[in-house]
Design brief:
175 residues; 10 strands; eight-stranded antiparallel β-sheet; globular; 35% helix; alpha+beta
Length: 175
């Protein structure tokens, strides 16, 4: 019985250690537009200036908030984008200041906290936990994506693969 309890405790601790964050600082996936605006006003590292940072995509009713933190001397962020679908935040994109922090430092810390990435390429590293997709992209962009919303959007799109994409898939299948 003691072994079962010990195993369960270790499993639970490992599960907590590797579950991905649902955003950065005050910006969390699933927030409404208004709650994110309020959170960004209070957290100066994002460089949010108010409603002039908000744009609307007229074709599908999606909101995007773009901020510029380059004027803030203490922020590690440069430009940030917050993308909404159905009035809920589903993508957070943070461009980081390469003069203050480097790719390897971020990558090492993410591996330490969340384990090795699920996908690794020269362009990006991707961690997934079923709810969140977190990616570190070169040169230095960190993204948080609501996996369920992203998958539903991907499944509902009618975009067909190009001839080049089909040829690439056929080549890879032939290996």
């Amino acid at each position: 019985m003691r072994n079962i309890i010990s195993f369960a405790a270790v499993f639970f601790i490992n599960f907590l250690a590797f579950s991905l964050p649902n955003g950065y600082s005050a910006a969390k996936l699933g927030m409404s537009v208004d709650s994110l605006k309020e959170a960004l006003k209070k957290d100066h590292q994002f460089g949010y200036r108010g409603d002039r940072d908000v744009s609307l995509s007229p074709s599908d009713g999606q909101f995007i908030i773009e901020t510029d933190a380059t004027q803030s001397g203490y922020s590690f962020l440069e430009r940030c984008w917050f993308q909404f679908a159905d009035e809920k935040l589903y993508i957070i994109t943070l461009n980081l200041d390469r003069s203050k922090i480097d790719h390897y430092s971020i990558f090492s810390k993410l591996c330490e906290k969340y384990g090795n990435p699920d996908e690794l390429s020269p362009k990006k590293s991707v961690w997934k936990d079923g709810n969140v997709i977190m990616s570190l992209e070169k040169p230095l962009t960190l993204k948080y994506v609501d996996a369920k919303v992203f998958d539903s959007k991907k499944d509902s799109s009618n975009v067909q693969k190009t001839t080049a994409e089909n040829a690439r898939d056929e080549f890879l299948d032939s290996l």
